[in-house]
Amino acid sequence: MQKTHDHKALWLVAPALLLVALTAVIPLMTVVNYSVQDTFGNNQFFWVGAEWYREILRSDRFHAAFLRQIAFSTTILAIEIPLGLAIALSMPKKGLGVSVCLVLMALPLLIPWNVVGTIWQIFARVDIGLLGHTLNGLGIDFNYTQNAGAAWATLIIMDVWHWTSLVVLLCYAGLVAIPPAYYQAARIDGASRWAVFRYIELPKMSRVLLIAVLLRFMDSFMIYTEPFVVTGGGPGNATTFLSVDLVKMAIGQFDLGPAAAMSVIYFLIVILVSWAFYTIMTREDFEPSGGAR
Questions:
Q1: Distance between CA atoms of 66 and 245, rounded to whole angstroms?
Q2: CB–CB of 239/231 below 8 Å?
Q3: What are the beta bridge partners of residue 46?
Q4: pLDDT value, residue 273
Q5: pLDDT over 80 (residue 44)
Q6: Alpha carbons 232 and 238: distance in angstroms, whole number
């Protein structure tokens, strides 16, 4: 008897596929089309092939922006992942304190990105900002509009304040999902607090930490609104990350071809690095287990 297949379920998925095509695939194909052509206006385009890609990859400007982006994302991950994990471990597991802590952790995530940039732009100003005025009153030369170190510190502290809460909430969700039987067995065996963290909590949270690392890497690597509002890429080009440089090229200079090529390269970098993170952090799940002795 021939088996019949019911494809009615595909109609339920069709709206989602159509939405993805309209919001992601079609714009991406448009950018790819621009990246292999040149224009002199009047909606006239000329095929140039991979010329813009070669120009971007050989550009010192692109290399400098890429290194700044890598430095920023690495710093953010090195601070926010351990800090978020430490805060999640110190949060209460039951009682009224749980609700209070969760609400406090969620508050920074509710603030729009442009508002966060505006808040820290004013907060770090030397003349009227509480942070900038206080630091300069203590004899610390802090001016994010003139000093590259101060600009970097402002952006890093701002991002840590805004996004560490996400890591905290993810880690806390992983912690409360651990069955109590593991902790009971650890108490019976007399395990230390470090042993409980090392052999119970950390392995059980590996998936959650993977999600936190991937989300924070992608967000920090594609950050645009906050540095644009706070520093505008300055002083000089000190905080001109890939996203800021891309917007300057596309809108400021109206170089559509090079900007489109840079967008495609940018997209591929994010995809490849995220894939590398995922592969490295889940490698043990695909390794064959040792045979019995």
A1: 10
A2: yes
A3: 38
A4: 85
A5: no
A6: 10
**C-alpha dist (Å) from residue 7 to 15, 21, 25, 98:** 15, 21, 24, 46
C-beta neighbour count of 103 within 10 angstroms: 9
Q: How much helix, strand and coil, in percent to the nearest 5, is found in the chain? A: 70, 0, 25
Indicate the pLDDT class of residue 253, thresholds 50, 70 and 90.
confident
- Per-residue pLDDT, 291: 42
CA torsion sign for 17, 18, 24, 28 is positive
pLDDT tens-digit map of 184-206: 999 998 989 999 999 999 998 88
* CATH (one of 1.10.3720.10, 3.40.50.150, 3.40.630.30, 3.40.50.720) for 60-283: 1.10.3720.10
* DSSP secondary structure string for all residues of 165-230: HHHHHHHHHHHHTS-HHHHHHHHHHT--HHHHIIIIIHHHTHHHHHHHHHHHHHHHHT--HHHHHH
Q: Are 107 and 161 in contact (CB under 8 A)?
A: no
**Distance (Å, whole) CA 275 – CA 128:** 44
Residue 154 binned pLDDT confidence (cut-offs 50, 70, 90):
very high
Question: Domain limits of the chain?
Answer: 9-49, 60-283
95 DSSP assignment:
S
When mean pLDDT is compared across 17-31, 114-128, 277-291, the lowest value belongs to 277-291
Find out whether 271 and 214 touch, Cβ atoms under 8 Å.
Answer: no
Name the DSSP class of 36: T
- CA distance to 158, 253, 268, 283, per residue, from 37 (Å): 39, 17, 19, 41
Let me know how long the chain is: 293
